[in-house]
Design brief:
By secondary structure, this protein is mainly alpha-helical. It has helices spanning 2-12, 56-81. It has a domain at 1-19 and 55-83.
């Protein structure tokens, strides 16, 4: 979780806290998992509305954040476990 939030901060320049929300995501059914869907401060939120959309930059940002998080996690595990 820390790696995910750090990557979000570095990619957006925004400091944020993790937020727990209600609702049905796959995370509830899978045990130890994080459902991560970043919202960007100041960006119009249109999800679950008529004609919802996501600007291209906002659509690609989570991919960059996920990649950075996975790279950091794999690198830390390699260093920690020597594999």
């Amino acid at each position: 979780m820390t790696q995910l939030l750090n990557a979000y901060h570095e990619m957006t320049g925004l400091k944020c806290e993790a937020e727990l929300i209600g609702g049905g995501t796959y995370a509830w059914a899978m045990g130890i998992i994080i459902a991560f869907g970043p919202t960007i401060s100041g960006m119009e939120q249109t999800e679950h509305e008529t004609n919802e959309y996501v600007p291209n930059d906002a659509f690609l940002l989570p991919r960059k954040i996920y990649r950075e998080t996975l790279e950091r996690t794999c690198m830390n595990n390699k260093l920690q476990f020597g594999g």
